[in-house]
Amino acid sequence: MEKRQELYAGKAKSVYTTDDPDLLVLNFRDDTSAFDGKKVESLARKGMVNNIFNAFIMERLQEAGIPTHFVKQLSNTESLVKKMQMIPVECVVRNIAAGGLVKRLGVEEGIALTPPTFELFLKNDEKGDPMINESLAETFGWATPEQLAKMKVLTFKVNHILKALFAEGDMLLVDYKLEFGVFKGEVVLGDEFSPDGCRLWDANTREKLDKDRFRQGLGGVIEAYEEVGRRLGITFPA
Ligand code: ATP
Ligand code: TYD
């Protein structure tokens, strides 16, 4: 496999074509952004930590029967994935109230959400990733009803798998965002799963171990990401 030209540079990752038209290289950079790109910083080790963390999670999900785009880790900061037609709809599940939900509805941070909630957001930075629903997605052609149904089932299945995985490391999976794409006609999990796109709290102290440390300027961002990995048995290079 040979890496060719840069196809797209996002806020945190760069995507490269390869000599195989079905495969892409994802390069996880140290760039970190929040608030729709209004707060941007480079955090040393973040690309490596997220790449290794994502590879670990994608492998666990694949083993548990979730179809993912992940093929293999290529280096500390790069992974090989299946090239997909991305569906521009982000799926968010929440087990505990935090972030946008607290702001929008004025509910107390930390209350358990039973059953967990499921929300859709349009992937559109210019418009600030607005919240949408199935009807809007269908009417505007962002996703078909069949794709949306599949995405919802898979997103909840991921919740079941990952809540248990993080619980083993004494962590609460508060909420998370997933992106899906289509590969050879099948709806497949894409992008990444890392502390950049989810909230994880220490189960006992409720200390934040995710990107909220960056959003809220709490410091120790990468230290927290590495702690999450360590608790799952991941070792990161020095
Ligand atoms: P955001 O941070 O809101 O997700 P972004 O575009 O800035 O947006 P990055 O993670 O920096 O995000 O860029 C990675 C890009 O690659 C995203 O647009 C993502 O949807 C896309 N992508 C991820 N996996 C695949 C895949 N398997 N095939 C094609 N594109 C992919
Ligand atoms: P949410 O609380 O709606 O937004 P915010 O990031 O503004 O606090 O997000 C819920 C979870 O989904 C949270 O873990 C962050 C993640 N998420 C993303 O990573 N990117 C997104 O574009 C969205 C909408 C959510």
UniProtKB/TrEMBL annotation:
An annotated GO BP: 'de novo' IMP biosynthetic process
The record ties this protein, via Pfam families, to:
SAICAR_synt
Instruction: Write out the entry's keywords from A to Z.
Output: ATP-binding, Ligase, Nucleotide-binding, Purine biosynthesis
Top-rank lineage group of the source organism: Bacteria
**The protein's annotated pathway:** Purine metabolism; IMP biosynthesis via de novo pathway; 5-amino-1-(5-phospho-D-ribosyl)imidazole-4-carboxamide from 5-amino-1-(5-phospho-D-ribosyl)imidazole-4-carboxylate: step 1/2
Instruction: Give its E.C. classification number.
Output: 6.3.2.6
Q: Which HAMAP family match?
A: SAICAR_synth
Please report the name of this protein according to its UniProt entry: Phosphoribosylaminoimidazole-succinocarboxamide synthase
Source lineage: Bacteria, Pseudomonadati, Pseudomonadota, Gammaproteobacteria, Oceanospirillales
